[in-house]
Design goal:
Elements: H1 2-16, E1 25-30, H2 38-53, E2 58-63, H3 74-79, E3 85-89, H4 112-119, H5 126-134, E4 138-148, E5 150-153, E6 169-172, H6 175-183, E7 187-190, H7 196-202, E8 208-210, H8 212-217, E9 226-228, E10 234-242, H9 243-247, H10 251-285, E11 289-291, H11 295-303, H12 306-315, H13 317-328
Parallel strand pairs: 1-2, 1-3, 6-7, 9-11
Antiparallel strand pairs: 3-10, 4-10, 5-8, 5-9
């Protein structure tokens, strides 16, 4: 009887024990830039909105400053499920989707209106690219504006013309930008975003190519002293999520993720002109020389890109021609 009573007590104790709450879901996100950067703050906004809307049932863990993956490794890492979400330069998808380089055809998007039309969700330029990226196993959640490409130098000598690139090693972050550098007599050096400060510091490259916010977020004035506002190309980043991870969420959770993504994209896009201005001004305040090419110099830069556009159409295939023609049709 004592044994039966003891067994009964054990059964009762299990029955009355509190049922543990269902474990919350954790989504890990990698980004190459510091959390204090514009793109870092943008994903932080996404994290806070998702966690609030799900009442903490989904936690977004952000690993910034390339703690886990360099920019160039993000497409594969997210596509294969090594990590749930990632931020990568659009140019990093050129190996899988050569047509993404349409945004790096120099001077193709020569106004903010054209760029906004091109990057709008479902546009004839962006829509086909998002669909193509999806075939890598990653779903595009939103695009992040990062401004027009500026050129960085040291020694107080700005890049005033394509001829100033000749004989110099230039940091690039995409194949087509490398083609442009080569066409103008320079030597392209592919340097990940997280490594560019040291590349400038060590003299690995003579000329930098980056977005304006990098000047501020990475204190570029410590290693370069001159900025040429050339707007060679429009820098776009994409935030992607592994498709299997996305489909593993409930319908309500997917709706929250989608809504937070839309809000993050809209806010950043609307604020970026001011962000660029402040970043350039920060460089000026830290003794950098800021040079804006005049109309004739810009025209010389445009002419230098003709061969690059032809090269893009040659290698980007049918999809490349489709999005290029769509870009030309924008007003």
């Amino acid at each position: 009887m004592r044994i039966l009573a003891a067994l009964f007590a054990v059964v009762v104790s299990f029955a009355l024990a509190p049922v543990p709450a269902e474990a919350k879901k954790v989504l890990r996100l990698t980004i190459q830039l510091p959390l204090k950067s514009v793109l870092g703050q943008n994903v932080l906004q996404f994290k806070e909105e998702v966690e609030k809307a799900t009442k903490g049932e989904i936690e977004v863990q952000i690993f910034d400053s390339a703690q886990l993956y360099d920019d160039k490794d993000v497409p594969k890492a997210v596509g294969t499920g090594q990590i749930d979400l990632g931020v990568a330069s659009l140019a990093r998808y050129v190996g899988d989707v050569p047509a993404v380089d349409v945004f790096y055809v120099p001077f193709l998007f020569d106004s903010d209106a054209k760029l906004r039309a091109a990057v709008a969700p479902g546009s004839p330029v962006r829509g086909p690219l998002d669909e193509a990226i999806a075939k890598t196993g990653a779903r595009v959640l939103w695009w992040q504006a990062y401004g027009g490409t500026v050129l960085l130098t040291k020694g107080g000598q700005p890049i005033k013309s394509p001829a100033d690139i000749k004989g110099k090693k230039v940091r690039v972050f995409g194949k087509l930008l490398g083609t442009w550098v080569t066409a103008n007599g320079g030597s392209p050096v592919n340097v990940a975003g997280g490594e560019q400060y040291f590349a400038y510091q060590r003299g690995t490259v003579d000329v930098g190519m980056t977005g304006p916010d990098t000047i501020k977020s990475r204190k570029i004035w410590e290693v370069m002293d001159t900025v040429t506002i050339a707007n060679v190309a429009s820098i776009e980043f994409v935030v992607v999520i592994n498709e299997k991870v996305f489909q593993g969420l409930s319908e309500a959770e997917r709706a929250i993720i989608t809504s937070a993504s839309t809000n993050a994209e809209t806010k950043l896009r609307n604020e970026f002109a001011q962000i660029e201005k402040e970043a350039i001004e920060t460089g000026r305040q830290n003794k950098m020389t800021i040079y804006a090419p005049n109309a004739s110099e810009i025209e010389a830069f445009r002419k230098s890109a003709t061969a690059v556009r032809d090269e893009f159409l040659k290698v980007a295939g049918e999809l490349g021609k489709k999005v290029h023609d769509a870009a030309l049709a924008l007003k």
